[in-house]
Amino acid sequence: MTTELEVLSPLADPTRWELMDRIAAGDSATATALADGLPVSRQAIVKHLGVLERAGLVDGRRAGREMRYSVRVEQLDATAKWMAAAARRWDNRLAAIKRQAETGPASGEEGAH
Q: Does residue 45 contact residue 39 with C-beta atoms inside 8 Å?
């Protein structure tokens, strides 16, 4: 099972993010098609796709002489759920801090200086 950090770290790279967007826009894509219009070589795209594949974000399958890549939706869903849970925890913490700030110091602390 891939951890969230192993998923988020590869997505932090703008080229890999662009590749994910391009792959998700269609059913699947080859490295050659994905490299079209990007300022990196096809070989660099293949390396980026390898990182995404190791992170469990894309699947590569052979189609004739080329590899076709598709997004692994289940890995993205699991990461999105983890991120939503983390956001809820932070929202709860921030709401508690806000409530505490709005109610002022707790009783007994006023003359503690």
A: no
Question: pTM for the whole thing?
Answer: 0.73
Architecture of domain 1-102: Orthogonal Bundle (1.10)
Q: Could you give the CA distance from residue 93 to residue 90 in angstroms, rounded to a whole number?
A: 5
Question: For residues 23 and 69, is the Cβ–Cβ distance under 8 A?
Answer: yes
Taking alpha carbons only, the member of 46, 53, 40, 36 closest to residue 14 is 40
Laid out side by side, the sheet with 58-63 consists of 29-30, 66-71, 58-63
Structure tokens at 70: 């598709």
In this structure, how many other beta carbons lie within 10 angstroms of the beta carbon of residue 31?
21
For the chain, give every domain's residue range. 1-102
What is the chain's pLDDT, residue by residue, as a tens digit (113 residues)?
A: 567 777 888 888 999 999 999 999 987 899 999 999 899 999 999 999 999 999 999 999 998 888 999 999 888 888 889 889 999 999 999 999 999 999 977 655 555 55
Map tokens 């939503």 to a residue.
Answer: 84
